[in-house]
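Postdoc handover notes: sequence design on the structure in folder B. Input tokens:
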């Protein structure tokens, strides 16, 4: 029988060991950590059933630690309990609002109360999120017009997501037809690609198959399913298998990002409709914004709710063209983020098959990509929570 595991994060050794020994006497499995960062490392090695964290961890504010965990899909429903030796109502509010489940003032009695509440906490979380087939967060990247940098932005956001969500698995799928560009961006030169995968029979294309065969490009931290290498090969794509490919990927990975580029079609629409987050990339010229408005209207007519749409303005040509406010007026929807003008930096990074954070670590776009990774993760989890 599997034992319930509890991760205890507490800088004070005596306090940590007291709780650990008390839990062990009740036949709980205990994992110990002295700091938030060590706790994150232990979590990546062994996923606990419940997490106990002291409010006075030195390397991170406790509510920030909770927020970081809640951004990880794996820990969206893991009970988190905070112990504090010096109760502070404001701190308690911060912890609970960040996603903490319980807040205790340290004492012998609070330890007993915590232990008694472990099973009810686990049961409550299970009832709130009944068992169902786990599926990873699905985010699609698309644009209404070419030249917006959708594929490059998708790859760099996937890199930031991989860097941020160290305990999660991330896959990027290139579904731009008739020819993909993710292999060129990441430097992959092999023959494995989306077209070949689409030829497999459904019973052959399992989660294990994908986990074993997707590519991990050098310099990048996500797994890649490259796209069509040329227009001729694209004609062999088994369209009917596309939904199954995405569905199987979602069973295998915590986050699946799909690059559609400007390939808005009967192939992409069903996947877009299923997506937890639809990142719509636009530039600041009038024609692209106008086409984006028409595309957004059509998407909403097809059941893609506005709450799942993430408009992203990429200033690929500098400050020329429409302002953010002017674009929002046309779109009738707020733009979630704006990628600053990167001059030739993105092109140079692409030419060397490296993320922009590697080639130009001080470029302000890196901050935007990291923020996008956080927001896409949060949107996806909220969408799945209903």
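Designed sequence:
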């Amino acid at each position: 029988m599997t034992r319930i595991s509890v991760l205890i994060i507490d800088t004070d050794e005596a306090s940590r060991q007291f709780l650990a020994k008390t839990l062990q006497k009740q036949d709980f499995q205990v994992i110990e950590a002295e700091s938030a960062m060590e706790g994150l490392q232990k979590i990546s090695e062994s996923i606990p059933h419940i997490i106990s964290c002291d409010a006075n961890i030195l390397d991170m504010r406790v509510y920030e630690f909770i927020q970081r965990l809640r951004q990880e899909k794996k820990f969206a429903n893991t009970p988190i309990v905070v112990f504090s030796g010096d109760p502070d109502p404001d701190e308690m509010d911060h912890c609970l609002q960040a996603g903490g489940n319980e807040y205790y003032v340290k004492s012998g009695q609070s330890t007993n109360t915590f232990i008694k509440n472990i099973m009810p906490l686990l049961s409550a979380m299970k009832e709130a999120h009944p068992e169902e087939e786990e599926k990873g967060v699905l985010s699609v990247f698309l644009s209404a017009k070419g030249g917006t940098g959708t594929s490059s932005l998708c790859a760099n956001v996937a890199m930031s997501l991989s860097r941020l969500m160290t305990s999660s698995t991330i896959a990027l799928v290139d579904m731009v037809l008739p020819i993909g560009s993710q292999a060129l961006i990441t430097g992959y030169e092999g023959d494995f690609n989306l077209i070949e995968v689409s030829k497999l029979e459904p019973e052959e294309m399992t989660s294990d198959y994908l986990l074993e065969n997707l590519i991990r490009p050098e310099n990048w931290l996500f797994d890649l399913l490259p796209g069509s290498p040329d227009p001729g090969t694209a004609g062999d794509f088994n369209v009917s298998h596309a939904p199954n490919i995405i569905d199987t990927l979602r069973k295998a990975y915590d986050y699946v990002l799909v690059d559609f580029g400007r390939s808005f079609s009967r192939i992409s629409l069903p996947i877009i409709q299923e997506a937890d987050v639809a990142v719509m990339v636009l530039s600041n010229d009038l024609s692209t914004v106008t086409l984006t408005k028409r595309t957004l209207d059509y998407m909403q007519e097809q059941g893609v709710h506005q709450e799942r749409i993430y408009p992203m303005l990429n200033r690929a040509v500098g400050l020329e063209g429409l302002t953010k406010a002017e674009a929002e007026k046309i779109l009738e929807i707020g733009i979630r983020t704006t990628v600053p003008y990167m001059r030739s930096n993105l092109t140079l990074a692409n030419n060397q098959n490296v993320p922009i954070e590697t080639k130009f670590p001080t470029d302000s776009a890196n901050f935007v990509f990291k923020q996008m990774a956080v927001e896409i993760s949060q949107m996806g989890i909220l969408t799945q929570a209903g």
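Context for whoever picks this up: The chain has two domains: 5-128, 137-385. Don't rerun without checking with the PI first.
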